[in-house]
Amino acid sequence: MAENNAAEKAVPKGILSGYKVLDCSIAMAGPFAAQRLGDLGADVIKIEPKTGEWQRHAPAGGIHGNKVNVSFLSLNRNKRSLAIDLKSEGGKEIIYELARQADVFIQNYRPGVAKRLGVDYETLSALNPGLVYISMSGFGEDGPYALRPGQDLLLQAMSGAMLSTGCDGEAPRAAGQYIVDAVTAYCAFEGVLAALLHRERTGEGQKVEVNMLDAIATIQMQELSVFTVGGKPQTRTAEPHAHVYIRAPYGTFATRDGYLALAMPDMKVLADVVNEPRLLDYAEERAGWEQRDEIFRLVRDALKDSTTADWFNRLNAAGIWCSPVYGYADLIADPQIAHNGTFVEYEHPTEGKVKTPGFPIRFSRTPSAVTRGAPLTGQHTEEVLRDFGFTDEQIGSFEADGAILRGEQP
């Protein structure tokens, strides 16, 4: 334990070092936002039930791990776990004392739950007027859909985005990522930083609301403006174009050994490189919209007889935007990924060597770092309570009353 503490102290302090974050969120969006704050050096305390947060019991891909499944592992590094019963009197005493000393509180409970638990903004801000309180929800805290489940696929379906890709007559396809969760996490992360900046200037905390529906709608700023301002409807055609608002050819095409993505090429240059003179018959701007399927088929037929690498080299040399279509194995092996240090590796006390995406933001003076892996349930309960001023006698009393769980150590 002493060796771990010494190693942590040797790591350069992150840009948010000194800020205390109480993370009462579950699943992906909230924990991901809180993890980003931890990556930047904040002391993130994951407040979870004594049975463990929901994500501990719902592993993506069915990958359970030894004691920590991969889903939880990926979203909860750089946090300490405090396992308490928020419905108990002792749990309320603890959370109120932590809130008095904290800088940020994050929750994504269903609307009304925070108030029933006594951790709503009004209650906590009365204890600490400088608190930045982040409330995350699926559809908003009130309104006709407030009680609907805020699940990623359902929000993708409602966002309109699924009908911007694919073929007419085929079922819409979801993104290959939990894109709504991720975008919502970054909105919350951005909201925390902006609210902390406001507090630095004024001393004033505030409530910040983020919901998944607004998050996925606003990242379609360009597409929705084409629709609302330009009046152009989403019109899918017979071939699988990558986006209804980009001229053909735009999408992925099968090659002899894989797939190649092609984006908005100069038609004359493309016709020359792929040796398909019929492409010259199509006026780039007009036909690229009105005859998308014909153009797609000509390009598809032209590319199928050579390899992805061959086409990439030839098209890239001609100044045409293109890329091989990667799987995860290809991505991890890519030299630019290695050069960027996109992935980080560290040792987890129960899960062994962990290789996972690292830090998308780089700071020259205050670098991000993994100082601790995802915690076991309640692993830091005793440590956190001591840090916030609770005595050994109080901690023993909380444990005896069932308000806390002193989790096992790795």
From TrEMBL:
A GO molecular-function descriptor: hydrolase activity, hydrolyzing O-glycosyl compounds
The keyword Disulfide bond is assigned to this record: no
Matching Pfam families: CoA_transf_3 (PF02515)
SUPFAM superfamilies assigned to the protein according to its UniProt record, in alphabetical order: CoA-transferase family III (CaiB/BaiF)
Keyword Transferase assigned: yes
Keywords from the named record: Glycosidase, Hydrolase, Transferase
GO biological process, one term: carbohydrate metabolic process
PANTHER family, per the entry: BLL6097 PROTEIN, SUCCINATE--HYDROXYMETHYLGLUTARATE COA-TRANSFERASE
Name of the protein in question: CoA transferase
Organism, scientific name: Pigmentiphaga aceris
Classification of source organism: Bacteria, Pseudomonadati, Pseudomonadota, Betaproteobacteria, Burkholderiales
